[in-house]
């Protein structure tokens, strides 16, 4: 049975330090309406979509910093965020969006240090339910706590403002997003094997740097994920962050950064037999900080089905059939038959690299 889904990435162009919340919200609403005219049922927005990518700045004033954060518990009611969820409900479109989550319990600060204000988070809103049905907190936080000594460096102070995500890689089902699916206890559900690939779509969220780490993808793969959603803000040129043996022009560096982004989305989608969708915040923020575009939708065979053509506000759209995940899941990457967990111990017992002894 086909399980088709009309899917969109809402890529955003730059959001500046001077952009107001209202201006940015208006752009998000416009993108959602554009996706709706294409018939999209699910729209992904970028990481920290509501503001500029503020972790590149050293912000010491607590009041100023609090302007970039929102509480998860008031997303559906706060004037800063509610208009997007209200429109999603009206248009009957599920959305996933990234934002800086204010730590209401103050637990994040006690884990990671006094400066930490919360988590780099994304949520999944089900329009049919009218509620947020899943939340993910970014696990892999790149960059540094303190700015680089080089005054011209592009900083990424995520470790300063955010605690590492503590919700794991929890896959979830998107309620009633796709027609004609099996439900628990429903007719035709006899054994566990009978339901594989026939229920409500299985989704997983990750945020930006997470896409570079195979561990998260495999955690989702082991839950039968069919679609991974990933919003991002990726610098086009940041030699202090990623290091360079060979000097590169900003143009060469950006080409490489887009290549690595797509490599992660394509390779990991293939190796976990799932679709993926990625949405960038792109372009030149504050006239100075370049972010890559390259938002795309990729298939379980690793092909790019649709991709952004600009570095501005743009909808990337594709109609997919989740049934296409079955080929990989049942053959090349049938985990149950082919994985050898007794050989993978290092993955969860060791963090850094330990080289073999030097030869004599
Ligand atoms: N936002 C985010 O996580 N950006 C990082 C930059 C890393 S620099 C190597 C990313 O992985 O795209």
UniProtKB/TrEMBL annotation:
**InterPro entries linked:** Aliph_Amidase/BUP, C-N_Hydrolase, C-N_Hydrolase_sf
PROSITE patterns, alphabetized? CN_HYDROLASE (PS50263)
**Is Glycoprotein among this UniProt entry's keywords?**
no
Q: Which residues form the CN hydrolase domain?
A: 5-322
Question: Do the record's keywords include Hydrolase?
Answer: yes
Query: What Pfam families does its record include?
Result: CN_hydrolase (PF00795)
Keywords in UniProt for this one?
Hydrolase
Q: Which GO terms describe its molecular function?
A: hydrolase activity, acting on carbon-nitrogen (but not peptide) bonds, in linear amides
Give the superkingdom in one word: Eukaryota
Q: Which PANTHER family match?
A: NITRILASE C965.09-RELATED
Protein name per the record: CN hydrolase domain-containing protein
């Amino acid at each position: 049975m086909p399980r088709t889904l009309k899917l969109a990435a809402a890529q955003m162009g730059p959001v500046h330090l001077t952009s107001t919340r209202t201006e940015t919200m208006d752009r998000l609403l416009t993108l959602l309406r554009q996706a709706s005219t294409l018939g999209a049922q699910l729209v992904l927005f970028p990481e920290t979509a509501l503001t500029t990518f503020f972790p590149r700045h050293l912000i010491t004033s607590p009041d100023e910093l609090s302007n970039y954060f929102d509480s998860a518990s008031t997303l559906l009611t706060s004037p800063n965020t509610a208009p997007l969820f209200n429109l999603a409900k009206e248009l009957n479109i599920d959305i996933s969006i990234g934002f800086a989550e204010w730590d209401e319990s103050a637990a994040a600060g006690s884990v990671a240090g006094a400066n930490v204000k919360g988590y780099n988070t994304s949520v999944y809103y089900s329009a049919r339910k009218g509620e947020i049905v899943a939340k993910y907190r970014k696990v892999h936080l790149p960059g540094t706590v303190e700015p680089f000594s080089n005054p011209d460096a592009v900083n990424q102070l995520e470790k300063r403002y955010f605690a590492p995500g503590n919700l794991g890689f929890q896959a979830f089902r998107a309620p009633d997003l796709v027609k004609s699916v099996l439900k628990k206890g429903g007719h035709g559900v006899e054994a566990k094997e009978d339901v594989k690939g026939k229920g409500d779509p299985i989704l997983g969220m990750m945020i930006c740097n997470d896409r570079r780490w195979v561990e998260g993808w495999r955690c989702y793969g082991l839950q039968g994920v069919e679609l991974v959603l990933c919003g991002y803000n990726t610098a086009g040129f940041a030699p202090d962050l990623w290091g360079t043996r060979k000097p590169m022009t900003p143009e060469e560096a950006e080409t490489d950064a887009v290549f690595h982004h797509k490599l992660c989305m394509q390779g990991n989608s293939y190796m976990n037999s799932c679709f993926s969708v990625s949405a960038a915040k792109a372009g030149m923020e504050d006239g100075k900080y370049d972010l890559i575009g390259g938002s795309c939708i990729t298939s379980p065979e690793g092909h790019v089905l649709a991709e952004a053509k600009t570095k501005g506000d743009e909808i990337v759209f594709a109609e997919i059939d989740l049934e296409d995940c079955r080929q990989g899941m049942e053959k090349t990457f049938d985990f149950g038959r082919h994985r050898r967990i007794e050989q993978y111990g290092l993955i969860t017992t060791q963090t850094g690299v330990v080289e073999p002894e030097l030869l004599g």
